[in-house]
Every structure is written in C-alpha cells, then in structure tokens.
Amino acid sequence: MKKTIISLIAVIITTTTCAMDHDIDAQQWCRKVTMGWNLGNALESAGAGWNYEKYAWENIWQQNYNEWETAWGNPKTTQEMLKKVKAEGFNAVRIPVRWVPHADINTMTIDPVWLARVKEVVDWALAEDLMVIINTHYECWLEYYPLYSRKTELTEKLKTLWTNIANAFASYDGRLAFAGTNEVNAKGDWGLTPTDENYAVQNAFNQAFVDAVRATGGNNLHRNLIVQTYRCNPTMGLSHLTVPNDPTERRLSVEFHYYDPYSYCSGTENSYFYWGNAYADKGAITPDGNERSLTSLFLQVRKAWWDKGLGVIIGEYGCSHHYTTADRATQEANQGYYLECLVKEARRHGFAAFVWDNNAFGNGNEKFGIFERNNNMSVGCPFFVEGIRKGSLQEYEATVDYDESDPDVGIGGKVLWEGEKALNWGEGLQLKISASEFKAFTGSCTLVAYYRQDANASYEDLQLNYGDWTQFSCTVEGTPCDGNFSPRSYYGTTGATHITPFTVSGSVLTKLKTSGAVIQGFGVIMTKVVIIDKPNTAISTITNSPTPSRIYNLRGVEVKKPRHGEVYVVGGKKILY
Question: In this structure, are residues 209 and 157 in contact, taking their beta carbons and an 8 Å threshold?
C-alpha cells in the first residue's frame, strides 16, 4: 500500500555565514550535514577501568588524566587531521568527549587544562568550517546507572556538568551542537534486557540536559540540542523515548546509532556474509537485514520524529573491515555498498549521519578505521569513503512514498482466529485453518496476520504451511515469499506491531482448498488472522466531498478532532495536519 508522508515543513537553507549563526533550526542543521565523521577513540579515551560496584576508577595505567586522549593508542588530534577530513569531502565532525575524571565527580568542576584542550579541537574544526557535535561520552558514572535509586543524584550532576560545558561554549555559533549523553546502558551490559525503569531514567537524563543548557541563556537558548534513545538504539527509541520539553521551538534532534545488522557490521575474520539483495548472487547473504529493513526503519524514524518537527542524528554508523581471501575485492565493494545505501537513505530523509572511525585497521571485529592517523591521515579504506560519498549525493525529499505496516488491510474480511498467543514452534501456537475456509475464493485470496514482534527473541519467523506441514509460496505486497517470513528482515524492527497480508493464488490456492493451512513460527505474538479476497487499500472508503472541512483518516473514516502531525485526507488529497 503506497502512501505519502509529507514533512512538516520544506525549508530552503541559505548558505550565508549568517545562516550558520543561530538562525538555523534542527532540521536545517541536519540537512546541512552531507558527510559526517567521528573523531573516535580520542577525547573519550580512558587510561583506567571503571568498577561498577565501587563507583570508582581502578587499574589506572595513565596517571595524568589530561593525557588520556592517547590512552587507547591513537595520536593526539591535530588541526592537520581535520584539514584532511575536510579535503575528503566531510563537512561535519562529531567529537566524543569524556569529562569525568577531567571534571570532579562530585562537583563537576572541569579541569581548565582539559577544557582548553577540548576547545582547541573544536576551534580547529570550526576553522575548517566543519559543523561540530560535542557530547558526554563513556561517562561510566552516569551511563551505567539508569536506576530510580540514582536518578535524583545523577540528573543533578548531569545538569551541573552541562551548565559548566554550556557556559564555556556560550559564545560559539550555531555550527556547534550539544548532545546530552551517549549509549546509556545498565551496568554497561549489552546482554541485559532493558526495563521500564531504564527507559524512564534515560528520558530524565534527556530532560535534565535540555533544562541545564537552556538555563544558561544567550546563544545556548537557541543552540541545537541532541537527545538520545536508550542505548542509542533506534527501535527502543521508537517505543520508549519521551521527547523532552524544550522552551525553544524546533531546536531539538533525536540521536540513534546504526550498526545493523550487527552480525555484518561488527566484522568476522575468515567468513563473510554479503549484505543486500544486490549481492545475492555473490554468496551467502546475512540473514537479518537488507535494503528493505534499512529503508523500513528509517521511514518509521521519519514518521515518529522528523515529521513532528525534530531533527534526526545518526551519531554513529559503520562497518568493520572484514573479508576472506577468496574474493576480498567484492567483499570490500559490498561494505562500500552498505555505507552508500545507509547514507543515501539518511540523506533522503534529511538525517545527519556520522561514520565511526576508531583508527583501527585490519580484518575482523572493530576495524572501523578510515583515516590512518599515524600515517598522515591517508585513507586506509577508500571503498568506505567512496560509498559514503556516493550516498551523500542523494537529495532531501520533502515528500516520500512508503509502505506502511499499520493500515488495517484486513477490514471486511472473515476473522479466522483472535486472541494473544506466542509462536514458539512446537511449544507455542500452531494455528490450523480448515480447507473449507478457502473454498469460496477463486483466483487468489489473502491471509492477513496481525501480530507483534517479541523484542526478547533472538530471531522471528512466521511460517505458512499446507495441512501436511510442507511450506507454500505466497507474496507479501507483491514480494515473493517461500513460506518463511522474517518480520525483522522485512520491517527492520524488533518489538513492533504489524499487519501483514500473505496472498496465495493459482495452484497454491487449489491445494489449500484440499489440505487447509497451518501457521506456526517463533518470536512472534499473534493477535488475529483474517481471510479476505483482496487486501484493502490504506483508504477503504472516501467521500469526494466539496466541503473542505470534512477530514478523513487513511482508513476513510471521518475524523472530528484531527491530531497534530498525522496524515489525513481532505477534499480527496492527503495532507499533514
């Protein structure tokens, strides 16, 4: 079902110096970023380990905190490095910054030596006319403790820290943006399932950050601010982010990070799974993501945040350099293709994307290096830069067509089953549909599945079988399906709710009239199954009324009180209210 989503405003961005002061809103700021780069593993490095239980640093190997910039093996940042970044076409830099222990953990007073160093690097970037983000990064004292028991203490500390940072940079122009936190994650343990408590405290961190910066006034009253989803995970943000209250209109962006699918982006030495249907003829394809899952997620992000007037920042993305000797050149081209698709899709929607570069090179995990900082900033992975450059040529689209997953395409059909049961192969729901249910259909029919993804499942599969348990072919919105349907690969999300139509025709329908059907699977919680001749369009009915005040939703139902930010039909045309 094709529908049109229209951005809240389509702006014309001027290129004058004046426009780069504080006359630029969050979406304009994002759209100006054509190629963004991360100065990774530099100002956020640490020369010690953090003890979660003791709430303190331990095993300190670099005693001088102000020398921690080189503690992870990278050289000190120079202006020449930033010149090289600019020369390769990048026009924005994200500078991750660790503040504690450079700031006192109790008072949040910042060491003037460290503050001067951060300012020096920011000044160099601005001198190259790069747009800049600074944040609080790897703040273990904060990020590891999204707990109600620590909420009051930590939000106050975060407020104090950001008051000090904001005051220090108060005179800087609108090219500089602030990002409140980084990847807040309980105990720093990625294996833990987030709780409502974790999400709520992250939301409190975001609000504390906005409150602190705005209270400093001056340029900071209009500075573009960036808030984060929990773990900087996009799907967790779509379901759990509460956008902070901001007294300044249209100066707020939401940040997430994108290393998806991680099985591909993290890199594995001596094995290779290609990403994307465009490389399906080259070898085994990564099973948990492709072009469709990328575009689907970004469209959901656009609808949730961008089209409500917020900017969107992809603060980190990247692909670890990995290959086998069998076909290294094709595999490197595939990684460039992945980055091209990602940046292209970001640019299409106006999102600002910053590639992660940790100056690590080789083959395998965590090899995200692009510029060789120890070798005059030569480009170590030119296929990365080429992919980003190609993607950056995409223009912003104020209006995009998209396949929405939520319109009720099963309206008017026969409900075959309704409830709430998990698919868990033999231990879960195995829904049997009698052959008699298919008798009345000729040519084709559609089974419409209503369900939500289990966010805690390692994978998801909806399997459609004949009554004899052999799988049957179908189509999903015209796309062939072999009877094994992965919501995660198709929609690019976890934990979301969907309505998916599976259409059968020809010999498949003939056999179903004899054998019936069975639906089973894993990682999916079913709520309803409907059988229908043909899926409804997104607008099931509409009156071509000459009265412009008649407003309909996308199911053709008249709406008396339309909601701001939603798409409606007025006079036969779709509009954003």
Answer: no
